[in-house]
């Protein structure tokens, strides 16, 4: 059974829609599951989380009933940017961790395009929350040095060399800044690939094998 469900969460007078995927039948409360927090790109903003199933990681999950991670995919409201309300986003994450028994030591963060920017921002502000971070085709932060807080966090960034929406130099700037701070991020530039990388990258099983290697220390 496919457990990619559209839900709503309210916190502090604000509300956010999201998709949640739970592996298996979703009823196994005996062991905690790793979770990927996925932040979508600008074109999927709105008030209907079902739209998120068309792109990125949710699209992959829709076609793989045996996907081994929980996936939390919130929807950014129309006209907003990640992270327009960081407290709401983190409260949603904590809600899912508590009620669906996600493993706090195996929470992974990824985002594509605008969501990649959000991934950089959220991870930089809360470096101890995420076991690994994967920004895809992401714009650079306005203050790239903010990424220095991630010098001890596993990072693997991806960008298409032919991306005309967000040039690959944006990722290059972030990676160079992080390395200058003492970080050891990985980066992959996909030759001849454009902004469509934001969907196709999640088809690569090597990405998920890499995520599984990383667990937060206690």
Which helices and strands occur, and which strands form pairs?
Layout lengths: L3 E8 L2 E8 L11 E7 L16 H7 L7 E5 L11 H15 L1 E11 L1 H12 L6 E5 L19 E5 L8 H12 L5 E5 L6 H4 L4 H8 L6
Parallel strand pairs: 3-4, 3-5, 5-6, 7-8
Antiparallel strand pairs: 1-2, 2-4
Characterization of this structure:
This protein is of the alpha/beta class and 218 residues long. It contains six helices and eight strands, in the order E-E-E-H-E-H-E-H-E-E-H-E-H-H. The protein is globular. The longest helix is centred in the middle third of the chain and has 15 residues, at 86-100. Helices cover 27% and strands 25% of the residues. The protein has a single domain, classed as Rossmann fold (3-Layer(aba) Sandwich).
